[in-house]
Fold each of these.
Amino acid sequence: MFLKAISGGEFKNRLFPYLAYRYNNWSSRVVIEMWITFAVQHFVLWKILNSFVMTGLVYILNVYFNKKRSINVLLITIVSVIAMPNRFVFEPGWVADTGNYLWPITFALFAFFPFYQKLTKQKINPYSYVLSLLALIFASNQEQVGICVFALMILIIGYLVVNGEKVWILMPSWIINICLLLVTVLSPGNKVRYNIELHRFPEYGQIGLLKKLEVGFSSSGIELFLNFNIIVWLLFVVMVLLARYKIKDRMLKMITYMPFITSSIFYVFSMHRDSHGWTDNIVNNFFIQFTSLGTKLSISNTITWAPDFLILILIISLVVGLWNLIDDKRKAIFAIVISAMGFLSKFVMAFSPTVWASGIRVDMILYFSVVIVLLMLLKEYETDNKKGLDLIVNFMVPAGIIINIIYITAMPW
């Protein structure tokens, strides 16, 4: 689409008229689409730069969450990035999806570097500060990332102000973020696309606010807890391993085990539900409650409450687990906030047919929020049980390599 439009189509190699047309008729992501339009015409260069971005993602995650420069944490970070599910990038293609999701997420992490330096009482380097602002412009042009960045900036700035820190040097970042969000809100193209997607998804116009809330809640919950993903499953495994010796209260320990136990049961049962009658009766009946419009929730039928009720229990279990497993309660709150942002980034799918039409790739923010929380827990694990971390690495690295090979061989080169 981008290649055809700019290389001899009606715009005759004129980039800015094309971007203006897109802004007025389809999307507010003018900064991102400027890059994508260039990238599709220079595919080899995109491959090189995308490799640098993925390397940069590993680097910045280790800057934030691997102060001791642990080789184990580094290896798990690499595995987490290369084991990213290929379904995130197979829908419209690698160039479009990395440009619209992976790059904004990576640049958002770099954009927070001055905030990190301020929180850790380091001197803010002027060069890295300028680069962080440039990264922020790209990141905030993606509306989901931009909203998450805005919320996290508010929380960090508020925390610094409460603790008597001067935050004036961080205000340009906040202003840039707000300006890019206004670009999104004021874009005529977003309204045009909304109507087009509404026509493709006519059922959406017939559901009310409460149903939209349920759609967002259930779709986010099933992606986080019930759809198999090795990194999410590893997060639950690490929670169990940490809880074994960090949580003494049996009730709290069992609550922390809940995400692992429940997700593992559904992972196994869902793989065999077509070949075992008893599995069909139990698990299949649960999964058929999920539709393209959330669950079959009915106030008058209490059985239909089960999926949403289970997801609510698992969310509470995750929050309780993180609170009790991370010793520094400020970091525990941060882990919970990051988890909430990942969940809500998927949750907002329910409020726009445009985002809903984007499909599975919008889950990428949720995925990397899980990666961040996993790295925070591994830091706790490394402090108390380095041998246990070695065992996790010995499992994860081969598994990650195998998954990456599977993804590469499945790619439509």
Amino acid sequence: MKNYYKIGLRRLSKLTSFSTLFLIFVGALVKSHEVGLSVPDWPTTYGKQMFAFPLSEMVGGIFYEHGHRMLATIIGFFTLIQAIYLGFSNEPYWLKKLGFIALGTVITQGIFGGITVLFYLPPAVSIIHGILAQTFFVMTIIIAYSLSVERERRKNITVNNSMRDGTLIIVGFVYIQLILGALMRHTASGMAIPDFPTMGGLWFPTFSDSMINNINVILFDMDWDVVSRNQVIIHFLHRLGAVIVTGFIGHFFFKNR
């Protein structure tokens, strides 16, 4: 019976993790199609309880936004069951605690999702919403891996401090890069530097009025909106972060191969 309990918990954790990955993909579709306000009320959907909303009316942007909400609610339910499951299991205390932290995170994430609708997609709230999504996904991965057979096999393997520290640094850099990505996405900075590998025609950005003007001339010719200096800086930081992450991963790989 104990073995079936463990297998069930293991499968639930994987289901939650993969479902969360799909939810992030669906959330990206909502943003890419700019349909976040296709359903203008929350937590109801056009005055109806979420799961009572007719499928026949899920058309256009409503399909993406309402589908996003329903999937998020289902994953929240998965996370609740997982937290309860972990709470009554014989797993380590830190893993039980992480299960409930994940539950709190997904609830908070849902609230921020509602706030983005009620306050008409404020960038600050949308950025937090995006960051929390990635954070919750990381938690589901940690939980799923900690419960996996692979983890059981590797539990007694000793890892040198250099490899462990390097891995943690890479994870930290990637997480910061995800934050920069959310910041760039929700401040409409994705095209703030339209040329590559140069930046506004320069190899080394100065962020001067001349550079910003060059960028806006390029964007005007492409029929894109002009951008501000802050948007250019955000875009540059995202590019710089990508270089740093790639460089560190390359260094780590060749050092530990």
